[in-house]
């Protein structure tokens, strides 16, 4: 069971030069696994599936099936079958002929085809439907036929592209259970694409969370839920309270206006996002906890009350067994083991702007021109992003020296240097490492070697 | 009296009565009467006894068949190329393919006649070839249009499903493309085969010596033999109804 059936190595794909739909993707899938690609629309999950199926070819990188590169083979040469989003059943064939299609293409013996089709129909629970036409079937039944049509070929891997998205909620839950059963009985490797996190949770052995063509995290459903790798994953999967903060000393972090004990191994000074699931928030009397809060809302959810409370500028969502009147004072605490800290790397020093006709780019707070060759495919009117590392920038008290200006908002001492958060005039944040000690509120400009900017086309 | 929606059909019903039903009735009456106005079946029997009418019928069917076949062979790849073209405004390409329809039909055939005359030296050298060229030139757009409409609408995921299930390029064409385009092929055939059987203008101008069904009717009427002319019309009508019936059954599946 530990053998890798499929491996993606440095797979990159773009439809428009300069914009990568999939960027340097590496992924291994084990034989017999049910893996889900989960992400919002446009995250590249369907493109990845299409490359595995052979409908799109990668620009670079390898797709290995049992160690053999199949990346450039057409779909009919791959032992992989697909269940399409809108089923794609052939309307001119009856159910029997739809399912037999793949076997007939392989010129299999008629009697053998008959046995296999009958077996496939029994797997999807549609015995006796052979002569029916496609139009006479309900959505759920068509879905089953689509599955039967794919599995009858006994593929090494079955791809399912949001197969349940056209069904209603109740039907979807039923089909999820059936797909799970089918997978367990057939022992086939399933790769499933969905944007529905609940569906991914219900079905998967392993979830691959994707955003912007990059894998954000892969792991078992519990891993992804309890220990999201970054705020994107935390936010996308389930509801969560997320606070920006910093590790202040060993196993302590400051966020939401207080300092909490945590289990983190991250070194002091690390900028983090703290995530606490609502069901883990503990509610106490007003003066018995780290945070004092006022209840603003109470929604009854059957098994619990969903409480929204305000503590200073922070809003906290919590599950509680009793009703709490809006306006009442409570105390809020985050138990040590329920605090999950994630290094803050998502959108530090990333700014988006539109390219002008003269090749310069207007950002909301400043204007820059990309250095020669740093954005070869960009054209005027395109949306581009620029980013820089805190360590590449420096602070200056000469207002004209840097490309952007602001006041020092936060100072974090990290052993040998300070990290400053500079708040710009439009409330934007710049993270800058500097060896010198500045004071809170100092007016500074941010200097950087233009070659150190990283540019990227967004769309 | 309250206005009913069905009243809206009154103008059409009147039109139908005057210009379709009445002439049809006249044709049928003439077909089954003789010169003195007595009912008779002799026109009907005469049609099948006369070797000339039967030969013309067979010849018409043959010309129509060849015309339809050639049209289909040219139109299918054309429509496929048009529908599959990545050109953003592909309806303009389609327009270019059907724009000959905008020019008066007789004018087109007259021009074609001159062109063929110039190439072949004398039209009489290849009378049959000329007829087919003329007919195909005339009817091709009627084959391209329905085929384009069907091919353009084909859900690409069905083609992907075909490839996914192991069909190679040829297999995909015969097992997926062709069945999916069948409605377009059928309506293209209707649009070409039936008119091609009776269209005598092309023959008259490009192939003076032989008759097609349309010209046969014309020749009877020119000789003031309304009864035999009407009988041929009635039989043609029957044939057309028969073809349409077969075709509808084919489409109905």
How would you describe what is shown here?
With 459 residues, chain A is of the alpha+beta class. Chain A folds into three domains: 4-219, Rossmann fold (3-Layer(aba) Sandwich); 239-343, OB fold (Dihydrolipoamide Acetyltransferase, E2P), CATH 2.40.50; 350-457, Nucleic acid-binding proteins (OB fold (Dihydrolipoamide Acetyltransferase, E2P), Beta Barrel). Chain A has eight helices and 30 strands. In chain A, a hairpin with a 2-residue loop joins strand 11 and strand 12 (252-255). In chain A, helix 3 (110-123) packs across helix 4 (139-151). Chain A starts with a strand and ends with a strand. Chain B starts with 9 loop residues before the first helix and ends with a helix. By secondary structure, chain B is mainly alpha-helical. Chain B has helices at residues 10-31, 42-49, 51-84, 90-98, 105-120, 127-153, 156-164, 169-198, 200-206, 213-222, 226-252. Helices cover 79% and strands 0% of the residues of chain B. Chain B has a domain at 57-213: MetI-like fold, CATH 1.10.3720. The interface between A and B is medium-sized, with 26 and 19 residues.
**Largest sheet, spatial ordering of strands of chain A:** 6-7-8-3-9-10
Instruction: Please indicate the percent range of residues of chain A in DSSP E strands (runs of 2 or more).
Output: 35-45%
CATH fold descriptor of the domain at 57-213 in chain B? MetI-like fold
Shape of chain A: globular
SSE string of chain B, helix = H, strand = E? HHHHHHHHHHH
Structural class of chain A: alpha+beta
Distance between the termini of chain A: 41 Å
Structural class of chain B: mainly alpha
How many beta strands in the DSSP annotation of chain A? 30
Oligomer type? heterodimer
The description of the largest β-sheet of chain A is:
6 strands, mixed
Ranges of chain A where pLDDT stays below 50 over 5 or more residues in a row are none
CATH architecture call of the largest domain in chain A: 3-Layer(aba) Sandwich
Which percent range describes the beta-strand content of chain B? under 5%
Name of the CATH first level of the largest domain in chain A? Alpha Beta
**Rounded average pLDDT of chain B:** 85
- Tell me which protein chains meet in the greatest interface and how many residues each side has: A-B, 26 and 19 residues
Number of helices of chain B: 11
Number of DSSP strand runs of chain B: 0
């Amino acid at each position: 069971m530990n053998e890798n059936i499929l491996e993606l190595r440095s797979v990159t794909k773009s439809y428009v030069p300069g914009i990568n739909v999939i960027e340097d993707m590496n992924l291994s899938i084990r034989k017999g696994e049910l893996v889900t690609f989960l992400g919002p629309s446009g995250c590249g999950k369907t493109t990845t599936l299409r490359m595995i199926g052979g409908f799109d070819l990668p620009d670079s990188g390898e797709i290995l099936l049992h160690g053999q590169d199949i990346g450039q083979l057409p779909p009919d040469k791959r032992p992989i079958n697909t269940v399409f989003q809108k089923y794609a059943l052939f309307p001119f064939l009856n159910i029997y002929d739809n399912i037999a299609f793949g076997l007939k293409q392989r010129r299999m013996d008629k009697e053998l085809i008959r046995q296999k089709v009958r077996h496939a129909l029994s797997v999807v629970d549609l015995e006796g439907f052979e002569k029916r036409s496609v139009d006479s079937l309900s959505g759920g039944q068509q879905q089953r036929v689509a599955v039967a049509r794919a599995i009858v070929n006994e593929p090494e891997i079955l791809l399912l592209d949001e197969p349940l998205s056209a069904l209603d909620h109740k039907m979807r839950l039923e089909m999820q259970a059936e797909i799970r059963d089918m997978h367990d009985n057939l022992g086939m490797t399933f790769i499933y694409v969905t944007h529905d996190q609940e569906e991914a949770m219900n079905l998967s052995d392993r979830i691959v969370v994707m955003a912007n063509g990059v894998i954000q995290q892969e792991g078992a459903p519990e891993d992804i839920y309890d220990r999201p790798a970054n705020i994107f994953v935390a936010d996308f999967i389930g509801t969560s309270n997320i606070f920006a903060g910093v590790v202040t000393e060993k196993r302590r972090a400051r966020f939401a206006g207080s300092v909490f004990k945590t289990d983190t191994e991250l070194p002091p000074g690390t900028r983090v996002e703290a995530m606490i699931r609502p069901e883990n928030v503990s509610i106490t009397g007003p003066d018995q906890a780290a945070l004092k809060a006022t209840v603003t809302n109470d929604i009854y959810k059957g098994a619990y009350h969903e409480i929204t409370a305000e503590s200073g500028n922070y809003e906290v969502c919590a599950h509680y067994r009793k009703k709490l009147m809006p306006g009442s004072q409570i105390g809020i605490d985050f138990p040590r083991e329920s605090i999950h800290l994630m290094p803050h790397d998502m959108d530090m020093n990333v700014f988006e702007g539109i390219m002008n006709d003269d090749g310069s780019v207007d950002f909301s707070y400043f204007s820059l021109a990309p250095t020669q060759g740093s954005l070869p495919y960009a054209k005027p009117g395109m949306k581009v992003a620029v980013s820089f590392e805190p360590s590449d920038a420096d602070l200056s008290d000469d207002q004209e020296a840097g490309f952007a200006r602001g006041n020092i908002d936060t100072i974090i001492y990290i052993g040998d240097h300070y990290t400053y958060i500079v708040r710009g005039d439009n409330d934007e944040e710049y993270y800058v490492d500097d060896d010198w000690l500045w004071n809170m509120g100092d007016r500074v400009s941010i200097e950087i070697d233009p070659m150190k900017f990283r540019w990227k086309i967004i769309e | 009296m309250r206005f009913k929606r069905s009243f809206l059909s009154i103008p059409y019903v009147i039109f139908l009565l005057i210009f379709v039903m009445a002439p049809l009735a006249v044709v049928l009456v003439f077909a089954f009467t003789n010169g003195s106005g007595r009912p008779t079946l002799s026109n009907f029997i005469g049609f099948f006894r006369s070797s000339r009418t039967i030969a013309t019928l067979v010849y018409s069917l043959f010309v129509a068949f060849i015309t339809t076949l050639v049209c289909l062979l040219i139109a299918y790849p054309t429509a496929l190329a048009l529908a599959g073209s990545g050109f953003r405004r592909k309806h303009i390409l389609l327009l270019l393919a059907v724009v000959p329809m905008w020019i008066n039909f007789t004018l087109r055939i007259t021009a074609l006649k001159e062109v063929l005359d110039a190439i072949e030296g004398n039209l009489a050298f290849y009378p049959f070839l000329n007829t087919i060229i003329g007919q195909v030139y005339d009817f091709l757009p009627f084959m391209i249009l329905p085929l384009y409409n069907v091919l353009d609408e084909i859900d690409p995921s069905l083609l992907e499903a075909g490839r996914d299930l192991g069909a190679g390029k040829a297999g995909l064409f015969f097992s997926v493309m062709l069945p999916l385009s069948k409605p377009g092929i059928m309506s293209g055939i209707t649009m070409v085969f039936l008119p091609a059987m009776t269209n005598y203008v092309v023959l008259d101008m490009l192939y003076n010596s032989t008759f097609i069904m349309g010209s046969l009717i014309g020749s009877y009427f020119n000789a003031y033999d309304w009864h035999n002319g009407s009988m041929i019309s009635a039989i043609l009508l029957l044939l057309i109804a028969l073809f349409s019936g077969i075709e509808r059954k084919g489409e109905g599946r």
